[in-house]
Design a protein that fits this description.
- This is GDP-mannose 4,6-dehydratase.
- One of its GO terms (molecular function) is GDP-mannose 4,6-dehydratase activity.
- Its EC number is 4.2.1.47.
- The chain is α/β, with parallel strands linked by helices.
- The protein has a domain of 225 residues: NAD(P)-binding Rossmann-like Domain (Rossmann fold, 3-Layer(aba) Sandwich), CATH 3.40.50.
- The protein has 13 helices and 13 strands.
- The strands form 4 sheets. The protein has a 7-stranded parallel β-sheet with strand order 3-2-1-4-5-6-11, with helices on both faces.
- Strand 2, helix 2 and strand 3 form a beta-alpha-beta unit.
- The radius of gyration is 19 Å and the shape is globular.
- It starts with 5 loop residues before the first strand and ends in a 10-residue tail after the last helix.
């Protein structure tokens, strides 16, 4: 009997990466998962996966900023899922060099390893933030790139490198551009866990940034399936292309808070906190996806609506063991 195909995942210890790792194992893959090296020998969210899942996962500590780490990770893999990134937009105002090191140079290291080792498929992760505030809606992959934060600029830099490697070297790369993913294990740097975490901790006075922006929220299990869809589709359907992953729906932050209050059966009083508000020209006011290209190429479609996803996320944060991992009483930059 042939062994299960080996895939490699960068950023596997993170929010989406850990869910993707689970989903890959469930779909019959062996996973070599990179967690960022740290002196605590922490594997991040991978440590919370079920033993039967971890039995199919080889965890290695490394860093995408180091070419040797990346080469060792991807050797022998049939597909590489590149998710490692610095993600927090507010921190990118303070440490832009770090974002270039990880999101641009790290991506270059992955591309070089995939190219020279002739890996059959690389799935590169982009972000809807590269579009900036929507100029036309819904946003298709042909929407202009308009980076309004150092984070977005660094991700766009990685995207352009991926495109260039396909054009220059025929590197078999496909770019997935998820819109706002949410769900269990997400960082408190994102709005949904920020609200749910505060409520789960007993607060009814919620502090947030700007309440006006709208976002297209996709449940994390659906985003994971989008990655697998582009990672396993026939090459001629996806390689060399960029795909949006989103629901096509949008909701304002203010209305989102009200919906979370409904799901959690809590009356919430919301106030704006100035330190949570982005610089005016940096705030992306509207994002809503057109994912028809992804659907046509792979058949992918989201399996959860917003309220269903919120209910599962609330269940996660209401578990005291999970909530204890978070700092709900401070602004997590």
């Amino acid at each position: 009997m042939a062994s299960a195909p080996l895939v490699a995942v960068t950023g596997a210890e993170g929010f989406i990466g850990s869910h993707l790792t689970e989903a890959l194992v469930a779909s019959g893959h062996r996973v070599r998962a990179m967690a960022q090296y740290n002196s605590f020998s922490s594997y991040g969210w991978l440590e919370t996966l079920a033993p039967e899942v971890l039995a199919e996962v080889e965890i290695v500590l490394g860093d995408v900023r180091d070419p040797g780490s990346v080469r060792g990770l991807v050797t022998g893999a049939e597909t590489v899922y590149h998710l490692a990134a610095l993600i927090a937009i507010p921190y990118s105002y303070q440490a832009p060099h770090s974002y270039v090191d990880t999101n641009v140079t790290g991506t270059l290291n992955v591309l070089e390893a995939v190219r020279h080792l002739e890996i059959p498929r690389l799935v590169h992760t982009s972000t809807s933030e590269t579009y900036g505030t929507a100029q036309t809606v819904p946003i298709t992959e042909d929407h202009p790139i308009n980076t309004q934060s150092p984070y977005a600029a660094s991700k766009a830099g990685g995207d352009r490198l991926a495109d260039s490697y396909h054009a220059s070297f025929e590197t078999p790369v496909v770019t997935l551009r998820p819109f706002n993913t949410f769900g269990p294990r997400q960082s408190m740097r994102a709005v949904i866990p920020t609200v749910i975490g505060q409520v789960a901790s007993g607060s009814r006075e919620i502090t947030l940034g700007d309440l006006r922006p709208t976002r297209d929220f996709t449940f994390v299990a659906d985003t994971a399936q989008a990655f697998i869809a582009v990672g396993t589709a026939p090459a001629d359907a996806v390689v060399g292309r960029t795909f949006n992953a989103g629901t096509g729906g949008e909701i304002s932050v203010g209305d989102l808070v009200r919906l979370i209050g409904k799901v959690m059966e809590a009356d919430l009083d919301v106030s704006e906190d100035e330190q949570r508000i982005r610089p005016a020209a940096s705030e992306v006011m509207r994002l809503v996806a057109d994912a028809s290209r992804l659907r046509a190429a792979t058949g992918w479609a989201p399996g959860h609506d917003l309220e269903q996803g919120l209910a599962r996320t609330v269940e996660f944060f209401r578990d005291p063991a999970n909530l204890a991992r978070y700092k709900t009483d401070i602004y997590n930059i």
